[in-house]
Amino acid sequence: MSNDPLVIFTPSGKRGRFPAGTPVLTAARQLGVDLDSVCGGRGICSKCQVTPGYGQFSKHGLTVAEDALSEWNAVEQRYDDKRGLPTGRRLGCQAQILKDIVIDVPPESQVHRQVVRKAATVRAVTMDPATRLYYVEVEEPDMHEPTGDFERLSRALAEQWDIHDLAIDLRTLSQLQPKLRKGGWKVTVALHKSAETDGHALLDLWPGFFDGPLYGLAIDLGSTTIAAHLTDLVTGEVTASAGIMNPQIRFGEDLMSRVSYSMMNPGGALEMTRAVREALDRLSVEIAKEGGIEPARIVETVFVCNPVMHHLLLGIDPVELGQAPFALATSGAMHLAAKELGLTSINPGARTYILPCIAGHVGADAAAVALSEEPEKSEDLVLIVDVGTNAEILLGNRDGVLACSSPTGPAFEGAQISSGQRAAPGAIERVEIDATTKEPRFKVIGSDLWSDDSGFAAETAVTGITGICGSGIIEAVAEMRMAGLLDASGLIGSAEQTGTPRSIPEGRTHSYVLHDGTAENGPLITITQGDIRAIQLAKSALYAGARLLMDQLGVDDVDRVVLAGAFGAHISPIHAMVLGMIPDVALEKVTSAGNAAGTGARIALCSRAARSRIEDQVRRIHKVETAIEPRFQEHFVAANAIPHATAPFPHLSALVPLPAVHFNAGGGDDSTKRRRRRRG
Predict the structure, then answer these.
(1) Domains of the chain by range and CATH?
(2) Which residues of 633-662 are buried (b: 16+ CB within 10 A; e: fewer)?
């Protein structure tokens, strides 16, 4: 045995001796080396490409001869002619080990390849999808051995792939015989590995060899918006992304109003369920078209959502979530057939995974943020804020993680704002206001130019300037505070008080004109006193939730803050802090994670191990219920001021001294006048 050739695989370092003539793929399988193959070593799929190393390897005490592998053969030549093999590569199923050899398995040949999921944290996800393709050759039926086609397919999978406990539904069973015969008893099957057992479900099959690719949908089902990512289940790459407004908005803009609609209207919950399922089915077709694929290639979906959306997606009346103790119908992860959720446009056999909820008002979206950002691995105390209609807040480090939700409402997403709109071309998304002249400049989605740059009018001529989205309203309010147009209590000053005609009267209050497009038949975009109040309520709820978690840990400061959410990447940290959305912290310690919930959904789609990890993690996260905590209201009231009534905000004060202006209904403002006199 000791005379058999030694094979060493890199980068795994696994090694073993095998009889001369053993294919590289066979040796890799027996050693547990991560080498891909769909065809099972028949030279069809070319997934098992390897790079042999020749010469002296002092590290291994090995010298590899040029003839350590069998010669290049006709199968390899055929593939090289057809698609091209990179220089130095061999097919692991064709190359046989003849002498001692070092074999490198390149990343693209590894089944569980690592894919960077988020450039912001340069973190990798090991690809381990629940659904994979397998090519299999099935024995033809024999009158002397009366077994069914499915039983012979099951036996072939056991022999060729060591896959047992195969399940098949009636729809797929009805297709089995014609496809087996069309493929000459050779088929490719899509198998979904069960989470509960080691069994597999046969989702679909194709005659002969089918190389895919197969796709999954990672869906962040929010109260206001639905975001979906079409993801390649082999590479982990996002092929297309799309978003739509949640049609349930017509039943109520926030979660509690939807619960109320369900309570007040018999059949209301089912009506909302039907609306969102129909929208999801349409979105699936649209995203497949955008990605240039057939919807039937989508074989898996993963959902993350807050508890009310979770129940409405599943067709469960959320009435219990509207009253203490806020009981969920189920908090565990869900494994379903996609068709049970009305997803009929994708592959009929597609499966759905829904991440677990943490508690009654902290849902699968918070679990997805935890999966993406991994606060339980942090050395320092990190506050993660997922900004949306219902904010999810996590605080913790390696010693433990706390979570709560806070009812911020839809103002941060542009709803309930007088000129508000969704983030679409033409929407104002960035704002700056000159502190001396009080004149604004802004950027709109679809253009890289500022409004005072030459060429801005021409570049925005098609979209126009249509309104202001969530990130735009946040920056506008913060800029108004920094420019002295807004006092700490949230009052907008008059033209006399602020020194700018852009402050215009509106009833008994004032508004600030951000853009006047009326001369070109466009809109008059203003920030009204009502808009300020809506933002104050939203940011106060957000801050109060974070402060409540800090109370639980007995701390007054956090080490760093991560802003997540659909527009987490679009709001600057300084504006978030001026507004008082987040606690005071060094500016460089505030980072953005973008749509962390959506990222968590993609991670769960790509990795069964990640699903197990988050299912275990949610059991250890400690939930704090804001609705019954008496200090929440106290924190909420103090946080109404901009940035805060009592918290000192030393880091912010060192960067941005905020004007000490005070506007009131009586008009006049001595502090403003004194400040102007000092300027001379």
Answers:
(1) 6-109 (3.10.20.30), 126-207 (3.10.20.880), 215-354 (3.30.420.480), 378-416+468-675 (no CATH)
(2) eebbebbbbbbbeebebebbeeebebbebb
